[in-house]
Amino acid sequence: MRKLDTRTIVVASHNAGKIREIADLIGPFGFSAKSAAELDFVEPDETGTTFEENAAIKALASAKASGMPALSDDSGLVIDALDGAPGVYTANWAERPDGTRDFPMAMEKVHNALVERGATEASQRTARFVSVLCLAWPDGHTELFRGEVQGTCVWPPRGTEGFGYDPIFQPDGYATTFGEMSAEEKHGWKPGQSQALSHRARAFKIFVETCLEG
User: Fold this and answer.
1) pLDDT for the residue 212
2) The whole model's pTM is what?
3) Residue positions in the annotated binding site for substrate?
4) How far is CA 99 from CA 30, 77, 85, 93, 148, in A?
5) Which residues of 52-73 are buried (b: 16+ CB within 10 A; e: fewer)?
6) Which residues are catalytic?
7) What is the structure's pLDDT at 110?
8) 86: cis peptide before it, omega within 30°?
9) Could you tell me which of 1, 25, 7 has the C-alpha nearest to residue 131?
């Protein structure tokens, strides 16, 4: 494993919600970071069929464009009753013909697909959020870190916090959705704590233990 020997990195994302969450996670470690959106980098085509492949595509593109290490996230909602969909196509389910993303529409699409499959009870709507972080260097070296959190898809959506599909995802062991949790509650982890709640926080915890500590 290659250690990160700088606190200056690029956050390889154009997603405002994702950039905000990653900034919240890296802030306590004193990182100086700019996003690919701020640097006006072109978004690479995500042609991979796995979270790992797409995370690497994004991180490598920003690392090579900036000449600095870049940290990306590829994440999505994996629903058992939908045979793993939307999975790596989670963001695509929210796309409108004009290229904008409509997550209320996407959440309704998920609900309707579950109803069509007869998945109306909580026990039939099990799901997990997956996050894969990729740290890439300009020379092409990459490190990958995967985090998952199990839960249930609820309906109707609850809460206005977070972003994306958060209002319909209720993690196991909690009575609230990600959309009803503050950022601190959702991540459930900061330096010095042993537990992490969100998929992104769990992946980030592994990143810290692998590339920053020791």
Assistant:
1) 79
2) 0.91
3) 13-18, 75, 163-166, 186, 199-200
4) 35, 20, 21, 12, 28
5) bbbbbbbbbbbbbbbebbbbbb
6) 74
7) 98
8) yes
9) 25
The annotation places the binding site for Mg(2+) at 45, 74
Written as six digits, the tokens of 110 are: 């998920």
**Contact status, residue 41 vs residue 61, Cβ threshold 8 Å:** yes
Backbone dihedral region of 58: left (phi > 0), alpha (psi from -120 to 50 degrees) or beta?
alpha
Rounded to whole angstroms, the Cα distance separating 37 from 24 reads 17
Condensed to tens digits (0 to 9), the pLDDT of residues 45-99 reads: 999 999 999 999 999 999 999 999 999 999 999 999 999 999 999 999 999 999 8
* Calpha distance 81→131 (Å, rounded): 20
| Residue 102 CB contacts under 8 Å (≥ 6 apart), including other chains | 94, 95, 96
Q: What stretches of 88-174 adopt beta strand conformation (E)?
A: 126-136, 142-153, 169-171
